[in-house]
Amino acid sequence: MSGTDGVVASGRAAAPADALRLEGVHKSFGRLEVLRGIDLAVAEHEVVCLIGSSGSGKSTLLRCVNLLEPIDAGRIHVLGTEITGRGVDVDSVRRRIGIVFQSFNLFPHMTVLRNVTLAPRKVLGLPAAEADARCEELLVRFGLADKRDWFPDRLSGGQQQRVAIVRALAMQPELLLLDEITSALDPELVSEVLDVIRELAAGGMTMVLATHEMGFAREIASRVCFLDGGLVLEQGSPAQIFADPQEERTRQFLKRIVDAGRL
Amino acid sequence: MIVVVIVNSPGWPAVRRAFFDGHEFTSSLPEISRAFLTNVEIFCIAEGFILVVGLAIAVMRSLPGPVFFPIRALAILYADIFRGIPTILVIYILGFGAPALQLSWLPTSTVVWGIVGLVLIYSAYVSEVYRAGIDSVHPSQDAAARSLGLSRSQSMRHVVLPQAVRRVVPPLLNDFIGLQKDTALIALLGTVEAFRQSQIDVAATFNFTPYLATALLFVAITIPLARFTDWLLNRDRRRRQSAGALG
Ligand SMILES: Nc1ncnc2c1ncn2[C@@H]1O[C@H](COP(=O)(O)OP(=O)(O)OP(=O)(O)O)[C@@H](O)[C@H]1O
Ligand SMILES: [Mg+2]
Predict the structure, then answer these.
(1) What is the CA(A50)–ligand 1 centre distance, in A?
(2) What are the residue ranges spanned by the domains of chain A?
(3) Are B166 and A103 inside 8 Å of each other by CB?
(4) pLDDT tens-digit profile of A223-238?
(5) In testing the pocket of ligand 1, which one of A25, A28, A32, A38 has its CB within 8 Å of the most ligand atoms?
(6) How far is the CA of A212 from the CAs of A64, A108, A226, B243, in angstroms?
(7) Ligand nearest to the CA of A53
(8) Do B149 and A119 contact (CB within 8 A), yes or no?
(9) Domain for residue B184, yes or no?
(10) What is the mean pLDDT of chain B?
(11) Are A60 and A35 a contacting pair, CB within 8 Å?
(12) Which residue has the CA at smallest separation from atom 6 of ligand 1?
């Protein structure tokens, strides 16, 4: 079904350092089969970029890893623990995995600081003072200190997205999922968000990101995965995927991107 | 226009005497006002329960998945039944039926049964209002909360409900006003509240001005209620904007 990818994935599976491992993950919406046996392993500190045309299932894949969508078949392991088995505590899994969405999804009725401290306080049970201290440190680090008492609707898109990233980081996740986090931004705001991701990558954060920013993927990814037809059709280093793709479908996809002037 | 027609109608002098008698007005007002406090009391007690029961029903209806089907079904049945029966029937059935059971542990006070009736009816309406509010919060808000590790109920409590309730304040106020008026129905059980008191006054003097006094009292309480809601909504908007501008 997924041929060589499966072998590669299970070969890597033996290593205990896998932060994330997917085995034969299937997901359908009604009669539409979006994921048709995804095999993927992500080592700790790796930055994996998912590329593929619109509708290829990048968002669905990330949502499945975070258990926002139940999968139909297959297995997902996070840091050695299977999270798709029966009786798994969904909330405790999500505590360890951060996700940032294309549309920010900040809580509009809370200030920036409350957005960021909500989960540390309610989920981890930190006292308010301690949560505030932890979160303000993060806000300072990402240049948002002066925005702590603002409500989201007064922030620019770039600021909102950085708050969303800080909100995910406040839970000190072991794995960060980023779903096209710059797609909803004006071009001049993209770089301030990408800077944040660069810094996180340099700090060793394990990340899986779906992106249409090929230039950024080439710069930051340890590995690039091309999704097509519900499978990881091809994966490799950015140099290999972008300069010397093996699959015809990958070549077509990249050619379309180049023609659109996005690479 | 309507005023002109009424004032020039042949029966107007008689109506004016019967309904707009200054002396009757001032003499009946104190007693009716005192009785009206009973309405306010009934209203406040009932409203407190309605806000809680209505919310509980709405939350029950929003529970997902097949596991919660029986709870959802019960909540739906409840809302359908109590929105269907005329308020006056529920109050009659409870007010005369429940005490007639002669169970010693049941309260016999008609006021209590009147309040129970109002709570049952209005909770059904208010639950629909809450539900519309919950549905209007985009699912991505819940997804964001759950992805941070918040449980279903934590997400409901801290993320979905605060946004939902804010949006339904105006329709909730409509139901408040309806409830305020319907407190007069408890008169049917013999409780002396404002409307019943005015009936007594009218029966004694054959002048209808006490009805007008009662009507004015009801209006006097709904207007501040409406202005209060406007104020709440405005304050919320201002607070959000100024926090952004100053911060
Ligand atoms: N909740 C859902 N219900 C039904 N169909 C869905 C749902 N979510 C996604 N889909 C469908 O699944 C397919 C994959 O969607 P997905 O959002 O994962 O693609 P994507 O690769 O992220 O695309 P894009 O690059 O446009 O973000 C699409 O055809 C989409 O219409
Ligand atoms: Mg997507």
Answers:
(1) 14
(2) 18-259
(3) no
(4) 999 999 999 999 999 9
(5) A32
(6) 20, 27, 11, 35
(7) 1
(8) yes
(9) yes
(10) 85
(11) yes
(12) A29
